Amino acid sequence: MQAWQVHQNGEPAEAMRLQEVDRPTPGDGQVLLTVRAANINFPDALLCRGQYQVRPPLPFTPGVEICGETEDGRRVIANPVLPYGGFAEYAVADAAALLPAPEALDDAEAAALHIGYQTGWFGLHRRARLEAGETLLVHAAAGGVGSAAVQLGKAAGATVIGVVGGADKVAVARELGCDVVIDRRAEDVIGAVKEATGGRGADVIYDPVGGDAYTQSTKVVAFEGRIVVVGFASGSIPSPALNHALVKNYAILGLHWGLYNTKNPKLVQHCHEQLTELATRGAIKPLVSERVPLSGAAAAVQRVADGVTTGRIAVVPALENGAAA
Question: More exposed terminus of the chain, fewer Cβ within 10 Å: N or C?
């Protein structure tokens, strides 16, 4: 089979090599899946660079989220078990962790439903306890993680403010349903948020960016507000001033979604049922901005790493043969 492999850590475009390799052999409790679509996540770039919290032995195939097909023909969503990741024709996953792919979504959309939407659901509902009528601020609202949070916030009845970088992303954020969109490259984020909220600020802030975005968050979070720390796509990890959280009376909430897979896997299943129901009634739908063949995976991962994409990019092996997905 064909698979992208990383033999030496570095930038995705340089580190990833498309090679002919043997099909992986599943271990105990694992299954072999035909990859129908693999969604590109920012952690895929971190894996290539050797900067992710999980460091698989070299060589490995990146790709942490797929829509695959079992040997008996079931369409499922899975997180491949590294080193046999999703940027390949076949991947390996834990049988107990397979989730049914919603019928309302195609392969690429289904592949993008899992990590970003589970993270959004746990962050907004489990950690921040977002309520209808509250104001939600989402950083990087046009990106893969942010776009999921925007849709989930709207589905929960919140007023959603999206922060993006660039005019093209402004249009995407509006289409996603943001009530207010702020272009951080052209506007003062702090002033714009205060103006949009009548000076009150945002009740919940969803931050997958870190760096300057986190600093902005601390200045626009409302009384008894909650800042959900999801990641550090900016590459800068903030050092919060806890005295500031004390005097402004807000909470800083960390979210590592992957922990739920081991600490409380039943909640992951419950979340998937909630997401499937939302997808079925059209309340959420992953924004797949691009579908690329397997041969285009490395270049696509590099674009995600560079922060120049909107929504999600899906790698679809069948596109090599001209098939649709």
Answer: N
